[in-house]
Amino acid sequence: MTPASEPATVTSLPIGSDADLAWVRHQVRQFAAELGFGLVQQTKIVTAASELARNTLVHGGGGQAQIHPLHHGPARGLRLLFTDTGPGIRDVELAMTDGYTTGGGLGLGLSGAKRLVDELSVETEPGQGTVVTVVAWVTRAPAVRPGLG
Amino acid sequence: MHVPERAAADSAARELAAFLESRREQIAQRWADAPLFRTVFTVSRDEAVEACKAVVDALSEVASSGRLESVGAPGFGPVREQLGHMAASRSRSGFTPGQIADEAAGLRAVAVELLHGEAQGPPEREAPDVLLALTVLMGTLRLVLMETAVSAGEELIARQQLQLLEVATPVISLWDGIIGVPLIGTLDSARSQVVMESLLQAIVEQRARYAILDITGVPTVDSLVAQHLMKTVAAARLMGAECIVSGIRPAIAQTIVHLGIDLSSVLTRSSLADALAYALARQGIEVFRRADGASPR
User: Fold this and answer.
1) What transmembrane ranges does the database entry give (chain A) (predicted)?
2) Which of A33, A100, B90, B162 has the smallest set of CB atoms within 10 Å of its CB?
3) Can you give the pTM of this predicted structure?
């Protein structure tokens, strides 16, 4: 793996209200734009962040979002972490199914977000909260993705 | 606390109250030139002096009640509003809360100076206790000032949120029987409720057959926003109006597809012009350029 060429600074944002969701979207969009994400990619990652941050708020009872800019050689990317201390997800596979919802929504939050980013992983334990991590890379240089080259 | 200490503190507070009362005029005259009080100065300096006197009176009232450290002391009641105005005016001029707090701290120096002058007069007075009491009291005034500033800010934010809800959802009559709602900003649950209500109301009032929801100004369309849109469309349909969602940008269209949202039940167009053309055509109205190219006048 290529070592990070610049020290990555982490931005933590609270998720406790609808207004916080708007702020998370705003910040993610700003980071994505600065890292060189194209308009379509920006829209995708911001939408994914919106879905996951809302899950943190609605299902996790609030928590926080972390934004890590990624610099691996020439590759630029974003890692976003959504952390809550809520009830956790009992069956992650079921939760990742299109249309499955416990909150009255469309049931596309988690599964839809997965399709909008390059990687999505869920760490959860019933009663122990949930951490959802997503990674998206600027697609200009897909060949230099870390771990592959 | 030991009883003698308590008694000493009480006597210092009383002494402080007496000092503030006797030096009310001098303190007010000198505070009136401080930046904080200059904010209330509109026509003449006397206004600032009056404002200072009110604050000195409040301080003296708090001192005589012995509640030097209490931000909620009733003595501050009469000047709370004025302090709020002062803090708000300073923050409008671009000062941070920290800078405003520093300005409030500056007021203490003036009072301390006068107190020192006093101590040189009758030497039997125990100035250190009174000085301590004055410092505590001025610290509390600073907190009251901050508190009023923050609560004024919160009120302002709450009011602006309400204003935004109303302002950002106009319903426009585009043609006889065709209405448009340009949506701008974040479409959260509260906003979409307002949108739905004003849209349905307008459908009734204007006997609209077609309603165009334009989302050009909505930066992010996630599954919740899509759900709100679908509900609004379904409700409009129940009222006999056909809804068209316009302003779907390329990035939004791709995102919606990847998210897996099925908008096939909703009539969509990329621009408001297309949506209007569709609605006009459905009403049997044709728009065309005159053959001679001349304007009607």
Assistant:
1) none
2) B162
3) 0.69
